Amino acid sequence: MSGVPLVEQAAAIASQFLSPRADQADMATGPPVEQIRRLAEAGLLGLTTPPQYGGEGAAPSVVRDCLAAVASGCGVTAFIYYQHIVGCRHLASCSNAPLKDRLMPDLSAGRRFCSLAFSHLRRPGPPPLRVLAEGDAWIFDGTAPWMTGWGFADDVLLAGVLPDGRSAWALVPLSERGDLQASPPARLCAMNASATVSLECRALRVEPERQVKTMTPAELAADTDRANIFFTALSLGAARAAVGSMRSGRCDDLIADAADALEREVESMRAAVDRWDDPATPADERGDATALRARCIDLGVRASNAAVVVGGGAANGLGHPAQRLFREAMVYSLIAQTRDLRSANLDLLLRSDKRVSK
């Protein structure tokens, strides 16, 4: 299947199925199972899985466009969905062939669902989750502060830090037991239905058949650049939905002009992201991935804020789409956040403040 039909399918599902249910999904007490099932039926859970395992093996630009479409329809669905396709990408690139042969066909088809628990690797300071080698096995001790989809996901891509500074990654089956325990779900201002918990590992033993890979700090830093480019899709999806929200109600010339300007920004930023990721783009013309993502985050927040302003007093209600989009855009500024990304975001905010004061 070519990339265009995949993106078209994602856009159609987002507009016809996800968006009409988004406010209800946002206020629900658990993950949007039917929404994820609909994505699975369309083959969208296999985007990052190679064809030999039943997946699409889609190009990165197609994966981003599909994720942006899902984010434009329903934030909590996108929040849970990206866990799976990121996990499948990491698994697909590993050398553990028996593990891939056993699990990737089911992950691609949506018969199994994968979540993530490795964002803590990007935190400065002592690692909250450590790993020791015991023969061929890895022993995980500590806490993974964030894991989404507890009670829904079958496996989690879990990572901790070895004594030599490398990170050890494993695909661990999820069940409450003595060596792996989940906290109560976190109360979140957005994506609250995502069943996001912290995972406590108590001498969790992972044998070689479930080990995925190790990464050096340099390899992790390079992967973080890729993550920054990938996650631009969430902010751009929210911005595109905000433009649609602005146009859906009373739309005078002022509102229409603002919506047109924001839409041009969205398309410009999408093109910039694609240029960064194009192998034909010279390295010295790509620019900084962190700065590029910060600009996308800024655009998502500004566009959703504009939708709130256009919505007026009604947008203060929890059930108003613009209010939900504003909260979702805020959450996207925190996903895979590093010190450099935080600095780039703050720099944009401060420069914006200086422009206003002149």
UniProtKB/TrEMBL annotation:
Domain Acyl-CoA dehydrogenase/oxidase N-terminal: 7-110
GO molecular function, one term: oxidoreductase activity
EC number: 1.-.-.-
Keyword tRNA-binding in record: no
Source organism superkingdom: Bacteria
Entry annotated with the keyword Oxidoreductase: yes
Keyword tags: Oxidoreductase
Pfam families assigned to the protein according to its UniProt record, in alphabetical order: Acyl-CoA_dh_N (PF02771)
PANTHER family assigned: ACYL-COA DEHYDROGENASE (PTHR43884), ISOVALERYL-COA DEHYDROGENASE, MITOCHONDRIAL-RELATED (PTHR43884:SF12)
Protein name as annotated: Acyl-CoA/acyl-ACP dehydrogenase
Organism for this UniProt entry: Paludisphaera mucosa
Lineage: Bacteria, Pseudomonadati, Planctomycetota, Planctomycetia, Isosphaerales
